[in-house]
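User: Okay, second chain of the day. Same drill as before: sequence in, C-alpha cells out.
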Amino acid sequence: MSTSQLILELSLIVTMLLVTGYYLFRTYEASDSVSKRSQKILTGLLGAFMVMAGTVKFFDPFTTMFTQQIALSELPFPTLSRWAGQLGEITAGALLMVLMVVSHRLSTRTNDILITASTLLTTAIMIVAVYVHLLPSVPAEVLPLQSKPPVMTLIILGLAWLNAYLYQRNRS
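Assistant: Same drill. C-alpha cells below.
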C-alpha cells in the first residue's frame, strides 16, 4: 500500500468520523437509553462509512481496484455491476444518514422503510463482496485493505444487522 493511498484512506476516515460526530452531537438527547444511543451512533457510522466506501470507488486507485475485482470475479454485466456496487453503497449510506439526521421528523413507517431498505441493500452488497473475496481468481492486491479473508465485509454486514435489531428493539 502506497503512502498516498494510506493518507487518502486516513483522511476519508477522519472526515467520516468528524461529519458523523457533528450530527450525533446535534441529535444527542440525555433521555435516550444506552441502546438508543448505540443505535444512533451505529446508524451514523455505518451511513458515513457506506457513503465513503461508494464514493471513493470513483477515484484512483480505488476505481481501478474495484473494476479489477469485478472483471476477475466474472460478475455478469460488469459495467452494470460496477455502477450497482458504487451507487448501492452510496444509497444505503445516504438512507442511514437521512435516518440519523431527520428520523425524529419522519413518521415511524418512513423510518421503518429507511432502515429496512438500507439493511437489505447493505446485505446484498456484502454478500456479493464475500463472494468476490472468496474467489481464488481475485488476488488480495485488488481487494479493500488488500486482505483476502472478507473480515471487514463480514463486520459491516454484522453491524448492519445489529443496527436493524437495535432499531426494532428501540422502536417497541
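Residues 3-171 form a domain with the I/LWEQ domain fold (CATH 1.20.1410).

User: Thanks, on to the next one.
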